[in-house]
Design brief:
- The chain is mostly helical.
- It is about 70% helix and about 0% strand.
- The chain has 12 helices and 2 strands, in the order H-H-H-H-E-E-H-H-H-H-H-H-H-H.
- The protein has helices spanning about 15-30, 35-40, 45-70, 85-100, 110-120, 125-135, 145-155, 160-175, 175-185, 195-205, 210-240, 245-275, and strands at about 100, 105.
- A hairpin with a 2-residue loop joins strand 1 (about 100) and strand 2.
- Helix 3 packs antiparallel against helix 5, helix 4 packs antiparallel against helix 11 (about 210-240) and helix 9 (about 175-185) packs antiparallel against helix 11 (about 210-240).
Amino acid sequence: MSTFIDTQRTTDAAEALHTLESRLAPLRARLTAHPLYASIRTPQHLRIFMQSHVFAVWDFMSLLKALQSQLTCTRVPWLPSPFPASRRFINEIVLGEESDEFQGRPISHFELYLEAMHDAGADTTPIRSLLDGLATIPPEIIREAPLSVLLSAVNAPVHARAFVESTFRIIHSGSLPALAAAFTFGREDVIPDIFRNLVRDLNTQHANQLSTFLWYLERHIEVDGEDHGPLSLRMVSDLCATNADLWEQAATAAESAIQARLNLWDGILSEIQSIP
């Protein structure tokens, strides 16, 4: 693969962002048109989807917190960070993702997803076991190998484990542009309208058992499309500026994040197709 741009040169940020989006367009088109969405036709299919997808919902929070730790000051004494627009954006995202309002109560989107899984009859044992295991490990020693061992021990689906491991490789890289690009181009905004329509139809057929999950999907589409999408693009431009090497880091991380999502979708599709 050719490099994003000659790393000895600088480039205009708007032009660089356009070039990056063009580079990612074929991968994102594959993701939008993935056959997984149309394959989900029964509540059992949806449960299989949720039992893997919940790991992506969880590791999104870790990706978000990694961004927050670098774009804002979370230590004492406080010092201002050099990216005021991006730190405001990330703090807004954290507010919504970690403590949104649902039916008059504060709740994180991850916890809401667990409730949606319960309503749908999906198994939450592996993801809850992962959280229990992580709670016993000091944060400073949680790195790729211990996390991989724990994911295996809790019987997380193989494709979900690979997805989480990919995310944490980006987190542990320490590259702020890479974190921002993975966050911007590889997350929940890639779920298309066709999937929401399928869930809406299933919800109607099965006595509103999927109403919480449908709210989760609609909420993400709402905030990603109206506010978070444009602001996340601005964040990538803010962090990379005119530094061609940083733009290449962002491009590589974005490609890795989208490919990891494609692999996750492939794994879930294979699991659904294996049902007799």
